[in-house]
Amino acid sequence: MGYWYHPPSAPRPKPVEGKRNKKFGLTPWGRRWIEVVETEGDEARLSRGRAYARAERVYDIKFDKGKVAAKVKGNSGTYTVSAEMRPFSKADWKRIAVKLQQGEVAGSFLNNELPDDIDKCIGVPLIDHKLTSDCSCPDWGDPCKHVAALYYVLGDEIDKAPLILFALRGISKKALQSAIIGSDTEKTGSDMKKSSVRQKKTVKKKRNAKKSN
């Protein structure tokens, strides 16, 4: 056995029915996420990560303060994986929230959609290119195939619900909704005030008309 001998790779998991040729990143934001992911690792591990994702080996996905954690069923056991982007600072989010209130994005957000030009709206890239990850497996690769699997599953979820990207930057759904609804509340309050003034003017005109009669 030579010095450069490497044991054969473990067999790839079989994809679940209907996912043999599944693509990840089918929407603009899903593609942006996958593009960032695929600059982070080598193709061998990424390819195996896609195989794990197609085999639905990633489960128990949880978000907590910008970090996403999950379990991945590997060939030699189940591993705990996690990944995160650099979270927005409090100062950054305060500034972004103001810009969201000033922009015309509320309707899109409430429909679980993310405008293509949101980066321009908030003044910073929503997807940070610096990803950090961790896995309980012994592979030193970054990302290893288990983390890569999580990345691809996240790409699939971003295709369905792109606002997940805010969660990956440490912004909770509640905080995001507050920023948008806060804008709507201000507009609604203004509209109610205008309506109230119009109603008062109408009542005054009717009273004056009755007096003149």
Write the layout of secondary structure elements.
Layout: H1 28-37, H2 43-54, E1 58-64, E2 67-73, E3 78-85, H3 90-102, H4 106-110, H5 118-122, E4 131-135, H6 145-160, H7 164-168, H8 173-212
Antiparallel strand pairs: 1-2, 2-3, 3-4
Helix pairs in contact: 1-6, 2-6, 3-8
What do you see in this structure?
The chain has 213 residues and is α+β, with helices and mostly antiparallel strands. The chain has two domains: 112 residues, no CATH class; 64 residues, no CATH class. It is built from eight helices and four strands. Helix 1 packs antiparallel against helix 6, helix 2 packs across helix 6 and helix 3 packs parallel to helix 8. The radius of gyration is 25 Å and the shape is elongated. The relative contact order is 0.16.
Please describe the structure with a list of short key phrases separated by commas or semicolons.
single chain, 213 residues, alpha+beta, 2 domains, four-stranded antiparallel beta sheet, 8 helices, 50% helix, elongated, disordered N terminus
